[in-house]
Every structure is written in structure tokens, then in C-alpha cells.
Specification:
CATH topology of the largest domain: Spore Coat Polysaccharide Biosynthesis Protein SpsA, Chain A
Distance between the termini: 49 Å
Length: about 375
Amino acid sequence: MWIVGFSILVGILYLVLISIFYFGWNRIPIFRSTDNDNLNTMVSVIVPCRNEEDNISQLIQSLSNQTYPNFEVIIVNDHSEDATRTYIETTQSELSKFHLIDALGFGKKNALREGILKSTGDLIVSTDADCFHPNNWLQSIVSFQKNYSCDLVICPVKIQSNNSLFSKLQELEFTSLVASGAGASGAGMPILCNGANLVFTKKVWLKSQANLHEEEQSGDDMFLLENVKKQGGKIRFLKSESAFANTKGSDSLMEFITQRRRWTSKSAAYSDWQIIFTAIIVLLVNLLSIILLSLSFFNLNYLILFFTLFVFRYLLDSIFLSSVGPFFKLKNIWIYSLILSVIYPFYIVFVVLSSFIVKPGTWR
């Protein structure tokens, strides 16, 4: 039966993919910076923001506490309609390192571009207005860059979860994305990054600027990654607990789905074969699960095949997540992974199909 052979093929490809992530992750050494690194690189932290009055104070406080001295913070206000701008103005008058720019254009992608063009640093660090960072965040980044001289550094991002099941599942799902990107990078095939904690030289950004797909509403991070790869640039993951960006999860299921649809909608513009291959394999294994479950209503043999694939995926995913769990401080991985394994095929297929049928709205 052809579907059995197809299921075996998809299973093998998924095994290869997760194995790459697993072994790639374990190849990356933990990085620890020291106070004796004699660092002097000028860093520009770029923060696009819109209507972030509830979050911006936490970010500013964490940036004010940075141990690394040689940096500036450029906050680009994208036409906020709340008290965001007023709060930033007050901060700017008190802290010389902080600079406020009112965006001329619209959208996060444009705000990031305007901020980078106004920056004075050789090293650019992008983050989001709803993030906060450890005190040694910039120290760790600059020390890593001094040691490895990268064109682009992928840094870890973690969702701060509460005790709700929805929050715990978000944390695990998001960690799986970040860790997969890290593992792929460790294996020499970087495929994922997040603009909430991304480091790159201004020189490489200027060189890539024309190829960042301005027609797409998001994806500044991924298109930069893709273009740096095309140029043969050096890309690494910074595996350090001091390098985290901590962010909050979505408040509602609708907000979560909208965000994921926005992330997915830009994938049609990707040209990197490793990114495309990964996306196809992940979609296939989840779509196949739904197909087998549907066919099992007509033939119980498909139900056996469905459960075989389900258990296979669950074990692979859980083993990988368990390997990254200590770094991301995850708890009860096997339990939450089981719940997520049940939901994930329906969620991922819906997000992919709906994002291509109807374009999601902008961050505005």
C-alpha cells in the first residue's frame, strides 16, 4: 500500500531532521564571557515599538542595568497611540544612552530599518519592546563576537510562562522552535532565528538591505539570515544563559494564532533550500497524521499506522526537548510534549493553509 511506504519515507526524513537538531545542539559549547575580555566595541541596540506602554518600562530597566558600558539604545516609535512615546521621552531625558526616533514610515520592519540607519555602532543588536534581558546580556554578546567574529549571531529567546496550561504549551512550542534553530546552526545549516534577540554587523546588514523583501510585512530576521548564508557569512548560535531575551507569551489563543500566521505567511518568499526542506518535512509529518487519522474511520489499519507515527514523533520530539530542557529550564517536558503532540498537527496545518489563503494582518 503506497501510503505505508510514504509514511515510512516521511518518518525517516523526520528522524534525520530531528537528529540533525539533536546532534547540532550538543555540538555547541556553552559560552562564558569574562570581565577580562577588554571589550570596546560600540553596540547599537535597536528597539521598534508600537503601543507598548505596559512593557517598555521593563525593557528599559533591564537595558539600564547592563554591565557593558559602550552601547546606545535607539527606540523607534511606530506611531504609538498610547503613552509609549511619553514614557520613552522621560527616559531619554534621564539616560544619555537612550535615543527616541519617531518612525517616518509604518510597520515594524520599517521601524527597524530606520533605527539601524540612524545607529552609530558597528555591531547591531535587535530586540523587542516586550523583552527584558540579564545584566550581562551585552557583555556576553560582545565577548562572543570578539572570540568568533560572526556576521550574524543567533541568541536564545525564552517565553516567561505562568502556571496556566496555555502558557506552558506556548513555552514548550516556542522553545522547540528556538532550539531547532540553534541545533541546525550547530550542525552548520542555520534555518531559524528571532529578531527579538539577533546580533549582526552593520556592514553585513547594509550589504543585505536590498534583499530583505520589503514587500513582506515581517521576516526581517529570517531574510537577513537567508541573505547572510548566500553571501557565505559566518553564523553561530550563542549558547549562554547570560544571552537570553525573555519575553511574554500571547494572552489569548487568537493572538497566538495570528502571530504564527504572520510568521508563516512570509515563507513563500524563502529561497534557501535548507529552510524550505525543513518546512516541508514538518508540514508533511503533521499533514500525514491528520490524513491517517481521517482514513482510520474507514479502515482500522490506518489507525495502527496513525498511532505508530504519533508515538514515533512524540518520542523523537521529547528526546530532543529533554536534551535542551536544562538550558531553557523546562519542566515536565514529557507531559507537556504529549499534550502538544496531540494538538500540534491540527494547529500547524491550519496555520500554514490559512496563512496562504488569507494574508494575516500587520503588527499594527
